[in-house]
Amino acid sequence: MRMSHPKGLYLLFVTEMWERFSYYGMRAIFFLFLTKALLFTHEDASNIYGDFTGLVYLTPLLGGYISDRYWGNRRSIVFGGLLMAIGQFFLFLSSTYYHTSFALSLMIIGLLFLVVGNGFFKPNISTMVGQLYAPGDARTDAAYTIFYMGINLGAFFSPLICGTLGDTSNPADFRWGFLSACIGMLVGLALFLSLKGKYLNSYDGRPVGLKPVRKNNAETGDGQMPFNFRKVAMSMGAAALLYLLFYYLLNLDVFASLIFSFCLVIPAYIITDTSLTKVERSRILVIYILAFFVLFFWAAYEQAGASLTTFTDESVDRVIDNHEIKTSYFQSVNPIFIFILAPFFSMLWTWLEKRHLHIGLTQKQAMGMLLLSAGYMLLAYGTQGVPDAVKVSMFWILSYYFLSTVGELCLSPIGLSMVTKLSPARFSSLLMGVWLMSTAAADKCCGMLSALYPTDHSVGVFSFLHFTISSKADFFMMLAIMTFVAALILFLVSKKLNNMMKME
């Protein structure tokens, strides 16, 4: 059996690396830009962060649909990458004129370009990894682990570069961080355009990611989802009703109501497609259920770009030998741990399988949530009883990042591979968009939760689902309990979900 990987994997690796450099470089300084240059409060900055990151992972539904039906993966990736580069440039302009009245407008335009661009880029490049391999190829899981390391290579050095350039005492310097993120996106796009024709071929030599062939054969499973005007109209009506419910009855904001409405309607639209077989519908349902559970993981994990940024900036002693480590640099800790641990986990799963010690996909994801919960419990312990004026050791935040990274390696790359395996070929990009859509809901929840974080400048006591949050320790314990309960329930239903997959 061949153990080497096709060269196309490494092209996708490098392309995704530069795109993640662009995104995570921006994310490393974005929250700081909001609070230190545009002077938003922590609560307002948290809500903006949640709105942006939520919409970033909602639009892959649109990109996945257009790719599956009209454009193909290649054209969608190029279009999305170009839009994201433009978005980063508008953030550069916003931070250049941060002291003017139109800085906010420039920032909103930039975020809109990033949101739409990511929708076309993200689901399509992830889907193309699986298309390089034959069905049932044992190398597929390892390929996604390698691809995941590309994501984290970009995530590792982007905060160091963008943070060095942008995270300074001068608010005007944020522009250089955003500009470097723009350049990184253009570099990745140029590499993809120049090499895609040579290397992006399937196991039998056919080019992958081209414009889809329009067929409609439910028996073979090769057809496109037919456009049903009546069904679309009913779905839009249901989305509108859900939006009104979330907005007026549950008092959620505009973006939360929009994101949560589509997160319910779109999956229902797909799974009720009449061309689906019983087995296909069962497998898609597994994707939905797991997407719901991992929502809790990402809502807590993505605090790294929100409340944990504030915690690191205000409450962590970052001085070593009279040198203060930049807050943005801590965004590189997670990728460092991934580089160290990802090869180990790749070998671990193989080693266990060879010894017939099978750990199911759902159990792995539940393990990931338990480890994240343990990380927040550690932070709660480290901050318990510590006065606001006293900064805690870096040990606590570094230990959290270690545990959350181990949890991520149990959950995230396995999830990408699972969606590729369980999705019918004609819905592959669209269902990858649904999987990423759970991250949209999670990121919006992340912003809502981050707004509850008690900063050094906040006053009063917050409550969340009858849980009193009067200190940083309470906030971290809330996140620990949330992820622990979700993991426990997933463990309990894991056997049923594994049976529903009906994988040969």
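the 2nd protein, sequnce then structure:
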Amino acid sequence: MFNKILIANRGEIALRIIRACKEMGIKTVVVYSKADEDSLPVRLADQAVCIGPAPATQSYLLIERIISVAEICDVDAIHPGYGFLAENPHFAEICESCGVTFIGPTAQQMRAMGDKAVARETMKKAGVPVTPGSNGVVDTEDKALEVAYKLKYPVIVKASAGGGGRGMREAHNDPSLIQAFHAAKTEAERAFGNGEVYLEKFIVNPKHIEVQILGDNYGNVVHLGERDCSMQRRHQKLLEESPSPSLSPLLRKKMGDAAVKAAKAVGYRGAGTVEFLLGPGGEFYFMEMNTRVQVEHTVSEMVSGIDIIKAQIRIAAGEKLPWTQKQISLSGHAIECRINAENPHMNFAPCPGRISFYAPPGGFGVRVDSHVYCGYQIPPHYDSMISKLIVHAPTRQEAIAACKRALDEYLIEGIPTTIPFEQYLLETKEFKEGNYDTGLIERLMKGGAFERQKPKGK
């Protein structure tokens, strides 16, 4: 097992990794920007090293500085968390060449699944259902139009190296396709340094279902059930739950088996997520694979009882998975709400600033993953998530009741948050019945139902 791990990240995920390491008897080093010098990860890690000013391009994305800290502090491994360099195959290669273990998949596996167009072809060969689309990258307007005619509108243009909803554009006719083609390429080039795009048939109002998998270095792969991540706005998730209220036992097994098959197709090691689109008729299609731990890994932890961060570390240290699929037992229902520093009454505008008062909820079955505290200054340079509320209960109805109570108990003053919107979502008929899809939030916002709610001042 490792003696010391460097955490190349910030915020709640850095703190989450520190906690897992402490429980495993592993020392931690955290790198940070000047904007994060007063953060909890910096205070709680065994060592903390500043690597630059606030902008991520001058700190968290500088591979050479992170590697220098790793060498100076004599670490055995680097955990990238999520975001930043977590899915950067070059970073994984540099780590390995310097004799430092990268806690995650190999660079080759990352490239195979990180390039969305290549991943589609890999899944086709493995027998995993994929959304009808182009054969590889589409590099010209004419080619895009040709593919769209075959697929029939609507279609969606996607960045090959995309993620987080960036580099994605819908098209419903020729003019909108041409516009979407260039817009997606431009955004992808700026966000990922790779402007390649491909086309898929656009599935109208699907459900977004993802399956958590774990694979070791010996060909063993298991899944920890599925998460329903359909509650999203502009491709950004706001609320997740496990299990999905939409899946029958048979469909659940089919999707779990498909996810394991997808991971085995590339010999995957570590924690990963296989994402599917579920159509209204029960048909499902592979969308992409995230080769890292995800924000919403917590709901899978709650229903499986497995610490995914510790599993990542053990796998990277060369240990075999201690369970077979039959030994994985899923119980109860979990819901996660992402608490962001955004004003939902102002089109979710980011609202960095100082938290003047902070009191998280508690009680049976309530978990809060957060790096903030009373007096914490939320910097404007990074994502706006400040806290994750996760509840677990024997049934979905009990989990919803616990989530409502916990949200009402949250006290965050000094900045607007998304808490009022989360409270609103839990009260909608669609969520209560489990009858929602990826387009629900946009429809609710257009209808103005939330805007007619009286703000609760949280």
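The CA atoms of residues 99 and 446 lie 53 Å apart. The radius of gyration is 21 Å.
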